[in-house]
Design a protein that fits this description.
333 residues; alpha/beta; Spore Coat Polysaccharide Biosynthesis Protein SpsA, Chain A; eight-stranded mixed sheet; three-stranded mixed sheet; 10 helices; 38% helix
Length: 333
């Protein structure tokens, strides 16, 4: 299994058939983009971790994209701008996809890594991600482990399979290609800037936007890269910790999040070429079965099995609502 080394990155940047001449020594090799909105009080967790990277300062830059924040995000970033290699820009269109696209536009390096504003990267994060692009064939995207950092004890009712809703990603301790049908999460992901721009970037119809929790902007992008032949590489040592506040450690938040996941899935189905057929028969059957099981499990709503059933119902409701709205907007019955 190929490891996530760093020594051959210079060869990748300058080898024939890749990107032409080597990057000038003064140019960053990788840009870390942190998109943020109204998190001035906790943004330092992400920025402190990026200031402490093992990669030489001249080899990377950090671009903070302020997504129309109303708090003192600009002030929170100011002290980092004085020490470099930090830069600040502002994206007025509210939405994670819009902010990430702004990051892609303004990045000065050929590789762009995305870190959430409520996460902290390990010291070797950028060094390992950068080195992974020397793997053959060149990955379309590279990602690593995401470890939830709970504000308190993890909910006892949370099923293991739903931990991904809180950002968790873990495919073990061995580096290698992601399993078929799997991909990095947007909170710990590096991509080749020009490839992503040619693929159309992130879809503004997807991704968190204000209070709307519609996810999957990276799933949609990576699906396009995969359709073009791209593969995704997993580097477990390029890990980040993702902060989970108490406000999200509630069933109500999880159900909203999974409901929005259903909406996102419907939107991706509808934008496929040709559009994927609606998952009506499966969905109606699942909805009926889950409602019946919920009635039986009502007295044990704190058990993971009951929560799992509730989220499956929430997903189906979000999915069907989105498809029904689209059908009505297009003049259907």
């Amino acid at each position: 299994m190929v490891g996530c080394g760093v020594g051959s990155m210079a060869r990748w940047l300058g080898s024939p058939g890749r990107r032409g001449a080597p990057m000038p020594p003064s140019s960053p090799q990788i840009t870390a983009v942190v998109c943020t909105r109204n998190r001035a009080g906790t943004l330092h967790l992400a920025l402190d971790s990026l200031a402490a990277q093992t990669l030489p300062r001249a080899a990377y830059e950090v671009l903070v994209v302020d997504n129309h924040s109303r708090d003192d995000t600009r002030g929170a970033v100011a002290r980092y701008l004085e020490q470099g290699p930090f830069r600040y820009t502002r994206e007025e269109r509210i939405g994670l996809s819009a902010a990430r696209n702004r990051g892609l536009e303004e990045a000065q390096a050929p590789i762009v890594a995305f870190l959430d504003d409520d996460a902290a990267a390990c010291p070797e994060w950028l060094e390992i991600l950068l080195g992974a692009f020397a793997v053959e064939p060149t990955p379309a995207a590279v990602g690593g482990k995401i470890i939830p950092h709970w504000e308190g004890k993890p909910p006892v009712w949370l099923p293991e399979r739903l931990a991904g809703a809180y950002g968790r990603l873990d495919y073990g301790d061995e580096a290698g290609w992601f399993p078929e049908g799997k991909h990095p999460f947007g909170g710990n992901m590096a991509v080749i800037r020009e490839q992503v721009r040619k693929a159309g970037g992130f879809d503004p119809a997807l991704g968190y936007a204000g209070s709307a929790l519609v996810p999957s902007e990276e799933s949609d992008l990576l699906a396009r890269l995969a359709a073009a032949g791209g593969r995704f590489y997993y580097c477990p040592r390029a890990s980040v910790e993702h902060f989970v506040p108490r406000s999200r450690m509630k069933r109500s938040w999880l159900l909203r999040r999974i409901y929005a996941q259903g909406i996102a899935t419907a939107r991706m189905d509808l934008k496929a070429t040709p559009p994927l057929p609606p998952r009506v028969m499966i969905g109606y059957r699942v909805t009926a079965l889950r409602l019946w099981e919920l009635l039986r499990l009502q007295a044990r709503r704190n058990e993971p099995q009951a929560v799992q059933r509730m989220t499956e119902l929430a997903w189906a409701l979000g999915y069907f609502r989105e498809r029904r709205l689209r059908r009505r907007s297009e003049g259907g019955a």
